[in-house]
Amino acid sequence: MPSFSASLCRPGPTTRSWAYRDPANLTVLGRAALLLGADPKMVLDKLFEPVKKAAPDLRDIHLATGQLALDKGDFPLAAKIFEDALKRFKEDADLQFGLARALMSGSRPQALRALETALDLNPKHIPAKLLLADHLVDAEEYEEAETLLKEILAVNVRQPEAWAYRAVMAHLRNEPAKETQCRNDALRHYTNNPAVDHLIGRKLSQKYRFAEGAAYQRRALKFDASYLPAKFQLAQDLLRLGAEEEGWKLVNDVHEADGYDVNAYNLVTLRDTTEKFVALTNAHFILRMESREAKVYGPRVLALLTRAHDTLTQKYGVKLEQQTIVEIFTEQKDFGVRTFGMPDNPGFLGVCFGRLITANSPASARGHASNWEATLWHEFCHVITLTLTKNKMPRWLSEGISVYEERQASPAWGQVMNPRYREMILGDELTAVGDLSGAFLTPKSPLHLQFAYYESSLVVQFIVEKFGMAKLRAILADLAAGKEINAILASNTEPLEKLEEDFEKYAQSLAKQLAPGLDFEKPKGIAGLMAMPGLATPEGTVPLPPATPLGPDGKPLVDPLKLHPKNFYILNQQARRLMSEKKFAEAKAPLLKLVENYPTQIGGDSALWLLAQVHRELKETTEERAVLTKLAALDADSVDAYQRLIELAAESKDWPVVAENARRYLAVNPLVPQPHRWLARASEELKRPAEAIAAYQTVLLLDPPDPAEMHFRLA
Question: 698 and 591: one domain?
Fold first, then answer.
């Protein structure tokens, strides 16, 4: 016999007394069926879709279908539903709020714009205010969040979500009595409401407090063992804590209970992939990878991680009691599901949750190669700092220490000052130290997000240089004790206002030290074209009018270099123009001036790389090699430079240089045979038989065109 909820989707004789067939009532019917546990696809197919076709101007049907997509975790679909609806209902606060919810996890700046619009349309929209409070908690803007919660409670003192957010903030401030009181207030009028503990736990997990978050999800499930949001969040928490058996079981339970939950479906599907991974282990790590990749470079990964472990545990004085789990994914979508619950990857190379690190394989780079060794060093540093603080640290400090430690490990790793960062620092785009975590949530552009990482690392560098490494360790210890970050900074360094003032001067000093012999003022006509060599020009940039008068042929009447002989942008432009005209000998002059004044610039458009190309065209091999050697020592991702150095060194039988650059190449892409082949040959010539054999065997794994030669070499 069909269930009552299912019968709601098929109104017939037995339900004639209430089976109103007009679109508005069918929409209500669908919502009721979902609340009673009806199959979502049946509701969608039998009720919502027919209503949407019959009455596309019915506002409620768009709200209902959008809400269904949100409930099932299909945020891209939800966003499309609300965006389409807003074309019909341009000034609708509820639809703007729905759009904000759909965008919040993937495009927060857009979500906040939708949220702002919703509140402009309805300043008393409580769900929108709650979502804004949620964002403010994420951004560590706790005073602003409290102000907003007071406004909400002034309207409805019983609002459980408002009290739950207060409980979250009390927990983060290490105020257990207040936390308990706020939780009790949230439960006062619905004493076994699982949504309260689920919300508190979810927010704690978003702060990387997974153990505490998991405890709250278990509380929620005591109220209602069938409450799927808590069950799925607990599964995620456990998987990130390394409690995998229970975590995967809960994922399967959620998927069996709700086959339309997108996040649960994604994880169940991912499990089919990860079960085929092989595990490489030692005393400190469990490394899981696709089997072929594990054979090719798995031992290199373990060696790098072990070196990071030995270096950083000693430096920070910490002993890790459990093995760190590292999972490397060949497909970005799999990395996205394991890391974020969705296949989309918003630009991350790796993520650390504490004991667990997830990372993209070099196979997933697809034209955007990066140094996997630097990435894993960065992520393992998070293991150290999250362990020391018991996961109680602001994002800016965690990221800042990791980028700082990259630079300490290798001069080619981590972010360094460049013309764009110089411009941002001197142009008043520094974020105040107390607000830095928010800079990661709502950056104006991808560049501003990268700058947030860089600025955070400079704050750490400033603290270490001015106050000492011991003070940085003391800051981490105080965080573990539950103290508030700004108070911690004040007690271990100087009052926050003074710290921010001194740091600003420090950052500006570093910016001014970048190539002081060059002029970085952007001439008109070049501003849009030459924002910074090595980085893509922003879309939609329009060049300004030329700085010098043009002749009938469209060329400047006055050589810009005579007017601006030290201008960074004009020197770059002149060099490129001469190279495009194949006037390589003439191009050397501006490039040499750039290299002399800015010898640390890196990237495919750097003066060092361009000068190396000029030397190559002029067959000046000695000079080319010298320039490439400088670039290779500074740039962790420059496989073209490594490859060319290998070729030049092999011609002169300089086998140590061949081996060095083959290893550099492998740190970016170990999945191609060439660097392994060259490492094998160099090791053979340097009388390192074990390394040569391992490298030749790896070449054979990569399906070389001449396997017979590899077998001959091995023999």
Answer: yes
